Amino acid sequence: MPRLHLVDATYELFRAWFAVPSTRAPDGREVGATRGVLGTLQKLVQTEGATHVACATDHVVRSFRNGLYDGYKTEIGVPQDLLSQFHLVEEGIRALGLVVWPMVEFEADDALAAGADRFAGEVEQVLIATPDKDLAQCVRGDHVIMLDRRRNTTMNEEGVRAKFGVPPASIADWLALVGDSADGYPGLPGWGEKSAARVLCVFGSIEAIPERTKDWPADLTRAVRGADRLAATLVERKTEALLYKTLATLRVDVPLTETLDGLEYKGTPPIFREFCASIGASGLVDRVARWT
């Protein structure tokens, strides 16, 4: 069975934006980040040996989560020269010969979660190529793991427990309590990473945490500093915490139409030449090792 690489192409685009020098296409458009993403994807299939690949993108920044919480992340503050490449990079990835899942209602992270859920039973291993902690909730043993291509490291279920202090099943609860500044929700006052991990390791989920610390194990109450205060905060802000958990929970019901065979990289189609010419990136054409 093959291995499946699921790539967070929005993350790759942001990473390239900060790492790659500004480059203008012949028509004046900024294309540096797009060129950077295509270069790293060529490396993935031609050097790193990926055979089955899907790239998830945020076609737009906003998603259904913005309708649930006003403070959720938006496109505000994202440079226009970067926003203008959201659709361009999708065009380039398709021209390279890879599948793109462009998200509008959902987010790229949801597509990655849905892909892992759908194809895990058909492959030897799923590698979710992103360092985004949200995706840690998708990790399953050594079968579905996270891949940080920049650092060339992987994280399995044991690694998730070591890094966050909780198993993958509790990641959304952990994020809800401690907050996620990248996504725009603050968590609950007083709940830090260690206290949230200690409590969730015992109870598993926000819903299962008893309201009174007298119903907590005595050793947990002693281990968690300010346990009474934290419990009271959770009682007062339970609705808020559950909303944050909804925001943090990735959706696996994203409609994906491809079969596993449809995700196989079979070479780069000739249209890639035209695309590269349009962005002034003839060097990418020279790197192509296999044409369809």
Automatic annotation (TrEMBL):
GO terms for molecular function: endonuclease activity. Residues 1-266 form the 5'-3' exonuclease domain. Coiled coil: none annotated. InterPro entries: 5-3_exonucl_a-hlix_arch_N, 5-3_exonuclease, 5-3_exonuclease_C_sf, DNA_polI_H3TH, FEN, HhH2, PIN-like_dom_sf. It comes from the Bacteria. This is Flap endonuclease. Keywords: DNA-binding, Endonuclease, Hydrolase, Nuclease.
